[in-house]
Write a structure and sequence with these properties.
The protein has helices at about 5-20, 25-45, 50-60, 65-85, 95-110, 120-125, 130, 140-150, 155-180, 190-220, 240-245, 250-260, 270-290, 290-310, 320-340, 350-355, 360-375, 385-405. With about 425 residues, the chain is an all-alpha fold. Helix 2 (about 25-45) packs across helix 6 (about 120-125) and helix 13 packs antiparallel against helix 14 (about 290-310).
Amino acid sequence: MLHPLYLCLLVPAACAGFFALGRFRRLRTAWLLLLSAAFLLAVQPDTWWLTLLLAGLAWLAPQMGRRGATAYAVLAVGTLVAVKLTGGAWPVGLSFAALQGISYAVDAVRDASQRGTLCDTLLYALFFPKLSAGPLCRFGDFRRQSRAACVTWDDLEAGLLRLAAGLGKKLLIADSLYPAAMAAFSGPAHPLALLLSLVCCPLYVYFDFSGCTDMALGVGLMLGMRLPENFDRPLRAASVRDFWRRWHLSLSGFLRDYVYIPLGGSRRGQARTLLNLTAVFLLMGVWHGFTWGYLLFGAYHALLMVLERGGVLRPDRWVRPAARLYTLLAVSVGFVIFMSTGIPVLSLSYGALQAALLPLSPGLLLALGAAMVVLLREGAKPLPAWLRRLGALLLLAGAVMHLMAGGYVPMLYAQF
C-alpha cells in the first residue's frame, strides 16, 4: 500500500475501470481481481502463489463438507506456522488471506447460501485494499456489496479524504514516533528511554495500524465497498476488556466467532470461561509470531482479562479518569512488550542518556502534538468541507513525495 505506484497507478486504474464498466458486475469483479492479483505479484514476487493457493482452496473446501472445511482450517493454520518457523521474509497478506479463507470455508459449510463463485471467493480473499493489513470481513457482506456496488461522487470524495487521513496518520505521525517508540530497545537504555517508549509505543502502533486501515477503507469506499471499521477510539477505553471491544475489531470478532464460541464461550461456568479467554489471547499472541515477546504479549493481556472478568480488578467501579489511566498504562506496557526485541537493560551512563535524548526532536514533538489533536478530535464534529478538501490534497501530495523519497517505515501489520 505504501508505494507511489499504488497511489498513482493502481488506485486510479481500479477507480477508472470501475466507472468504465458501470453495470457489468462480472467484468467489474474480474477487473478488481486482476488488479488484486497484480498487486499480490508485485509485493511478493516469490511467494504470491502460496497466498493465491490458500484463497483457491478456500473455495474448494466447502464442497467436501464439514471435513473439507476442517481440513482447510488445519492446512491454513499449518501453512502460517510453517512459514513463521522458517524465519524468512513474511509474505504480505498471507495471514489475512488465510483467516478470510477459514471464515469462508466454515460459514459456507454452516450455510450453503454463503457459498460463492470462484471469482467472488478469490476477490474476497485477495481484494487489494485490505490484503496487507485487513480489516477482516464476512463473505456474505462482501459479496452483497461487490454485486450492488455503486459509487457516487460523494463516496469518491469521502474515500479520498479517508485515504488522505490514513496516509497522514501513517507517514506523518506513526513514522515520526517510531524512533522514540524503539528508544529502549537499542542497547543499554536510560530510564528516560523506557519512559519515552512507554508513551510512544501505543501511539506508534495505533497510528500505524489505524492509518493503514483508513487507507484500506478509503480505497474500498472509492470502489463502492464499505469495509468494516477496525477501531472505535481504543485509547479512550476504561478497562482492558473495553479496550478489546474497541481495538482491531475484525480480528477480535474472528477469534470470538471461530475460536472462543466453539470452545464453549461463557456458557460452561466461570472457570471454563477464563480458560477459554486465556486460550484466545495466547493464540492471538502467537498469531503475530513465534517469539517470546508476542507470546508474553498474549499472556499479559490474558492475565488482565482474567483478573477483570474474575472480579479481582473492577475498573468499572472506579471513577472514570482513574479507570482510563489504569487502562492506558496497562495497554502501554503491553505494547512495549509487543514492540520489544528483548528485555530492556537500563543504564545510568552518559552514553545511555545521550541515546535516550537522540529521538527527541522537533519532528517528534510535532508528531506527538498531532497525535493528541487527532485523538481529541475522534468522534467530534467534522471540520468544514473546504478545509478537509485542502488538507486531503496537501496530505496526498506530501505522501507521494515522501514515498518517492523512500523514507518511510514499513507497515507494522504487513509482517503478520
